[in-house]
Amino acid sequence: MYFENTNLENVVVDQELLVSIMKQNGLECDGGWDYERMTFDRRFDTREGRYYLRVFTFAKSGDVGAHDAVLSIMKPVLGKYYYPHGVEYGEDEVFPAHLVKKCEEILTKVKLDLEAFEIRA
């Protein structure tokens, strides 16, 4: 499930600042990177299953491995984890309303934190 109207898509931000803001909001990049991309995840274990809020980014300039990239944020997504296949984001998935609401709150907080540094879409 892609989140629309978050005003995060296409925001461009320094890598170290974004890592800090994401971490403050519970989104971590544990190995989800290469030299051109970073993926920030927050895992949710609910009675309905395991879900991941994911925010994908790509480097507009610099090098992620050298910690000097300028990243562009892509559309945030919520996916359901299926063992052993991985995370599914399809439109056929059903996501609990309480989880969708929580993810929207997190994404709103990330946007507010970025605006505190005058970073706008």
Would you give an account of this structure?
The protein has two helices and six strands, in the order βαβββββα. With 121 residues, the chain is of the alpha+beta class. Strands 1, 2, 3, 4, 5 and 6 form a six-stranded antiparallel sheet that branches. The radius of gyration is 14 Å and the shape is globular. The model has no long low-confidence stretch (mean pLDDT 93). This is YugN-like family protein.
Uncertain runs: none
Topology-level CATH name: TATA-Binding Protein
Q: What structural class should be given to the helix and strand makeup? A: alpha+beta
Net shape = globular
What letter string, H or E per element, gives the SSE order?
EHEEEEEH
Number of strands: 6
Please give the radius of gyration in angstroms: 14 Å
Number of helices: 2
Distance between the termini: 21 Å
The share of residues in extended strands comes to: 25-35%
How can the largest sheet be summarized? 6 strands, antiparallel
Integer count of domains: 1
Fraction of residues in H or I helices: 10-25%
Average residue-wise pLDDT: 93
Give the CATH level 1 class. Answer: Alpha Beta
CATH superfamily, called what? YugN-like
CATH architecture: 2-Layer Sandwich
Organism: Lysinibacillus piscis
Protein name: YugN-like family protein
InterPro entries: Uncharacterised_YugN-like (IPR014967), YugN-like_sf (IPR036491)
Furnish the topology, listing elements before pairings.
Blueprint (H helix, E strand, L loop, with lengths): L11 E3 H10 L12 E10 L2 E13 L8 E4 L3 E6 L3 E3 L8 H19 L6
Antiparallel strand pairs: 1-4, 2-3, 3-4, 3-5, 5-6
